[in-house]
Every structure is written in structure tokens, then in C-alpha cells.
Design goal:
Helix content is about 40%, strand content about 15%. It is of the alpha/beta class. Helix 22 packs across helix 23. The chain is globular, with a radius of gyration of 26 Å. The structure holds one DNA strand.
Length: about 575
DNA sequence: GCCGTTTTCGGCCCGACTGTTTTCAGTCG
């Protein structure tokens, strides 16, 4: 048996690839989607699924049965799912890339392969240039041109690009505001994965009701920032902005706004599960209404609240709609009361110009924090810049400022966890601070788990900052034994941070949920280096909500005195 | 391949849009 267990991402990738190859072979659709569903489930599980499979417990995860558990064990023992090894002999692997091109699905790719004998991206490009693709039934010059265009833009199709929520959400809110101004617009709302606060989004979804749908769609497709109209129908249009962001607008009658908002908010898996559940009770759910199959009576709802109530669920907040147990909990009336941004009483990880990369002064940051209504505010500049008396100098500035403001300023630091797990400030200094965040910065150096465990063992450490060091779109998370870190944090009474920087969001929603389920409180902090970044709190709260966190689960919804008490009891 | 307030067999969400057709399959979300 291999000494290290395959990561969840590796297992999921193999299952997805197996699904793709089988689909190209023309396998049964439901088998293929069972593999994909299992892959998604595995990706969204915090602990190592390979260990569960070895212990015979992977089948406890929904969507994973005996057969897929066996396949996971094959990866542990032999490195690859046996069926995958076999399919790779039969189906050229590069065909999978074809399916990432716009308009190319499994059926078409299968025919390109079998009828034209094309098996490589280069071969596909040559055939398209030579006009050979259009010889296929159902393929025309226009499809051929679309393929060539996509290949020119991206010679090796890499799949849909995802935009961090921090960039997408403001753009989406601006688009909603623009549409709202049009005289034909009635209700306009954000929908899709951005409404669910997913860390990255692909398409930006907007839905609306309108007195004149065609006029609103016209307005949408001719907005100043629109570079291309990708699709346009009577109720729906897709446009691409100059910066590459794709926006979908869908317009419906006001009486079914609730149905549409629910449908277009997704997730797809949530909707599928909701609809399957409805089918079992003789109901058919679509974006236009809920149809009683027997009688044909259609129930339309102006709000999501009414729709969920009709189907027998408590209202499910968008952040929970991931087919991760929320439907069952809503049926039983056991959904959590999710934490809200306004409930944060302070920020516990922030910087000032005392750090070289800080852009706003201490006074500016504190004033901004006070105007956000915070009761306390931890200044945690990098330890690296606070040597040789600078820390004491900063304390003097804090003491002077404290005289002038109502908000409680906490003396803190973000101390670096060195490669050997020691901290780069001595204990006697750390002991004098109100709040100590310890973070790994050189993530390329390995052993993140050991370094974090060592830091947790230091009694002065209050919180671990941005645990995995990931930067969305730039570098992946460090591999950590999250379960072990949570256990140690519970033992030492320290906390883990949800870093709200939109390119970090670290802990991820999956990790944050696992922490919550283990009974560990999380801290939502912005790591702001300038005044405007204090507003990132809403992205961190988005992660916490996706992790099912109530105000109880988020440490800094408490008054500072309570946090001090919690620490003393450790 | 998974799953079960009808079921251990026989189901498995639903509709819009595109490009190609001339009534529809495939793709997409």
C-alpha cells in the first residue's frame, strides 16, 4: 500500500476523467453522472476520503456506494482506478479537451473521433481549418468557426475560467443598478453562484421582472461595457464584457419571480435534489412554477419564501444551497440561524503603514473601524517590521490614539511561523500583546501541518492566520492535516481564522464547516492593509455562512470581555 | 452507479437557446 494517501482532489479528478472517457464511449448517462456526483462530493469533503474508503466508511457519504468506494481503494493501492487505466487504452485522452470548447459536447466529440478519426487538439484545428468538420451531419460553417475562434484564443482548452467573488460581486451589483434604472425594469436581482457567495464564479447571473421584457433585454445587450452578445432570446440573453466577464439576464413575469430567483440561484445540485424530492410527491418544479402532475395545476410564487414553504421546507439561505444536507435540515426545521456581517463586533487581523505593505495609517484604519461600528480592533502588523524597538514605538502611538477614540484598540501582531515551527518574536514579547495571530508565509517550504501544530503549542498564540496560504488563481492550498490541526486548536484554546481577503478566503468554506462541526470557533478577519479592505468582511462572512456558522460559531461576534474570558478558561 | 415515507428494481430535473434543420438534437445552466 502507498505510504501517503491520495488527496481528495486526486480522487475526484480520476473519477471525473473516468466519467468523461465513459461518456465519450457512449456509456449510460446515469452511471456517468453518478461518477461526477461522487467527484463533487469528494472535493467538498474536508477529511481524507481515501482513509474513509480504506476503513469501509466512504459509503457514509451521500452519492458514494460500494462500487465507488472500491474504486477509491484501488487508487490507494495501485495509484489509479482500474477502470480508468482500461478506458485510457480505449479512448484517446486528449478528446476530453475537446469537450471544453464552446458548443462541443460528448455527442459531437464522439462523432468527430469516430467518423473523422481525429484524436488530438492539433488534428481538430487542422480539420476545422480545412473545413472538414462541416462534413459531419449537424455541423455547419458557423460551428466550425466557433471552434477555431476558441482554439485561437486558447490553444490548449483549459476549461472555464473562474473569477474571484471579490471582483465579480461588485461588477454584478453595478450591472443590477444599471438595469434597475431602466423604465421597463421592475424587480432586478443578483442570482447564481455569486448570490450563494461561492469563492469564485463563472457566469454572473441577473434576473428581473419587467413591464416590457424585450426593451429590458435590448437595454442589457447594448450597455456600454458589453463587448459581445453571446446569446439573445425572448426571455434570456448572455453578454460578455470587455474584461471577459459573462453576464446572463433572464426576464420573467412578476407572479413567478420567486420561482425564477430560486431556480437561477442554484446550485444545480440543490435544484436537482429539490426537484427529485418534489417528483416523489407528485410535483414538478421548474423556473415558472410548481405543477401538480395529477391535475396540471400550476403554483407560481412571487417570493422564494413562499416557494420553499409550499414545498415543505423552511426558507433556505442561498449560501446553504449546495445539496449538502440543507434540504433535509430545512424539512425538519433545523437550519442554523446564520451569522451576518452586521454582527461582527471587531476585526482581529489588520495592518497599517507600520507594515511595509500597509497603505493606510494607524489613525486612518482605527477611524474607519470605528465608523463601521466595531467595538474593538486589533492592530496586527507583521512581526518582521516590528523589531528593534519599533513594536514599543507602535504601542506608544496606539496609547496616544486610544485617548482620542471610543473604539478599543488591541495591541496585536501577525507573527511569522518559521520553517522549524518557532515564532519570530520571543515569548516575553508575545506575552505583552492583546492578540497574537500566527501565520505561515513561506508556503513553499513544506511541513505546514507540523509548523502550525508547533505554533498552536505556544500559549501566546490566539489564532492561526490564512492556514493554507492559497491565493485563488495563483497558487493552491498547502496540504495540511486539517483534522489534526482542529484537534490541537481545541486542546490549546486557539482559533482558526477565515481570512476575508477575496483572493484568499482561507479557511475555505469546506474547512470552516469541518471546524464548526468539530466545535471549534472561527474568527472572521479582513487582513486589511488599507481602509477600503475593511469592507472585505462580507466575503469572510460569506464563507462562514456557507460553513453553516451561527453568530455563536464566530468568535468576533462577541464582546471583547467575553473573548478574554474564553481565553482565560483555556 | 446510487438510492428508497410507494420501491432492493427501476427510476434518476427541467427548460432555453443554437445551429442545423424543416421538427430536432445537442449543449448549457
Amino acid at each position: 500500500m502507498a505510504t501517503t494517501l491520495p488527496r481528495n482532489g486526486e480522487l475526484a479528478d480520476q473519477l471525473d476523467l473516468l466519467a468523461d472517457l465513459m461518456e465519450l464511449e457512449g456509456s449510460d448517462y446515469f452511471r456517468v453522472s453518478a461518477y461526477r456526483r461522487a467527484a463533487t462530493r469528494i472535493r467538498e469533503t474536508a477529511g481524507p476520503v481515501a482513509r474513509l474508503a480504506v476503513e469501509g466508511r466512504a459509503t457514509e457519504l451521500p452519492g458514494i456506494g460500494k462500487t465507488i468506494e472500491e474504486k477509491i481503494v484501488q487508487v490507494v493501492e495501485d495509484g489509479e482506478i482500474h477502470a480508468l487505466t482500461k478506458r485510457k487504452q480505449a479512448v484517446p485522452e486528449e478528446l476530453v479537451l475537446f469537450m471544453r470548447l464552446p458548443g462541443l459536447g460528448p455527442k459531437t466529440v464522439q462523432r468527430i473521433w469516430q467518423e473523422l478519426g481525429i484524436t488530438t487538439v492539433d488534428g481538430l484545428r487542422e480539420a476545422a481549418e480545412a473545413g472538414r468538420l462541416r462534413t459531419l451531419q449537424g455541423m455547419g460553417a458557423k460551428s466550425e468557426e466557433k471552434i477555431l475562434e476558441a482554439l485561437r484564443a486558447e490553444p490548449e482548452p483549459a476549461g472555464p475560467r473562474r473569477t474571484p467573488l471579490g471582483a465579480a460581486l461588485p461588477a454584478l451589483e453595478a450591472a443590477v443598478a444599471e438595469l434597475q434604472e431602466h423604465p421597463a425594469a421592475d424587480k432586478v436581482s443578483i442570482a447564481g453562484s455569486a448570490r450563494r457567495m461561492r469563492e469564485t464564479v463563472r457566469d454572473l447571473d441577473v434576473i428581473a421582472t419587467a413591464t416590457d421584457p424585450a426593451a429590458l433585454l435590448d437595454h442589457f445587450t447594448t450597455l456600454e461595457w458589453v463587448a459581445e452578445v453571446a446569446a439573445r432570446g425572448g426571455t434570456k440573453a448572455t453578454v460578455v464584457a470587455h474584461d471577459g466577464l459573462r453576464f446572463d439576464l433572464r426576464v420573467v413575469p412578476p407572479e413567478c419571480f420567486g420561482n425564477l430567483l430560486q431556480h437561477f440561484t442554484g446550485s444545480k445540485q440543490h435544484n436537482v435534489a429539490l426537484r427529485e424530492d418534489a417528483v416523489r410527491r407528485g410535483l414538478s418544479v421548474s423556473e415558472y412554477g410548481v405543477t401538480e402532475v395529477e391535475t396540471g395545476v400550476v403554483h407560481a410564487f412571487a417570493t422564494e419564501e413562499e416557494l420553499y414553504a409550499f414545498l415543505g421546507y423552511a426558507y433556505i439561505p442561498p449560501e446553504l444551497r449546495e445539496a449538502a444536507g440543507e434540504l433535509e435540515a430545512a424539512r425538519r426545521g433545523e437550519l442554523p440561524e446564520l451569522v451576518e456581517t452586521a454582527q461582527l463586533r471587531g476585526d482581529l487581523h489588520t495592518h497599517t503603514t507600520w507594515s511595509a505593505d500597509g497603505k493606510s495609517t494607524l489613525a486612518e484604519m482605527v477611524a474607519a473601524a470605528e465608523s463601521r461600528g466595531y467595538a474593538y480592533y486589533a492592530v496586527t502588523d507583521h512581526s518582521h517590521y516590528l523589531r528593534e524597538g519599533r513594536l514599543e514605538a507602535q504601542w506608544e502611538e496606539i496609547d496616544r490614539l486610544q485617548e482620542q477614540v471610543g473604539i478599543r484598540i488591541l495591541k496585536g501582531v501577525e507573527v511569522n511561523i518559521r520553517a522549524d515551527g518557532t515564532l519570530d518574536l520571543p515569548d516575553e514579547v508575545l506575552a505583552q500583546l492583546d492578540w497574537v495571530v500566527a501565520s505561515v508565509h513561506a508556503v513553499r517550504e513544506r511541513r505546514t501541518t507540523e509548523r502550525v501544530l508547533a505554533a498552536l503549542d505556544n500559549p501566546h498564540v490566539d489564532c492561526i492566520g490564512h492556514l493554507t496560504g492559497r491565493k485563488l488563481g495563483l497558487r493552491g492550498p498547502a496540504e495540511v492535516d486539517f483534522g489534526e490541526i482542529v484537534v490541537r486548536a481545541l486542546e490549546t484554546g486557539a482559533f482558526l481564522e477565515i481570512n476575508a481577503q477575496p483572493n484568499r478566503l482561507d479557511l475555505s468554506d469546506v474547512h470552516a464547516r469541518a471546524a464548526r462541526e468539530a466545535g471549534l470557533k472561527v474568527v472572521v478577519s479582513t487582513d486589511a492593509h488599507e481602509v477600503a479592505s475593511l469592507g472585505f468582511a462580507r466575503f469572510g462572512i460569506g464563507v462562514a455562512r456557507r460553513a453553516w456558522c451561527t453568530p455563536e460559531d464566530v468568535l468576533n461576534t462577541r464582546p471583547w470581555e467575553q473573548i478574554v474570558e474564553l481565553r482565560q478558561s483555556r
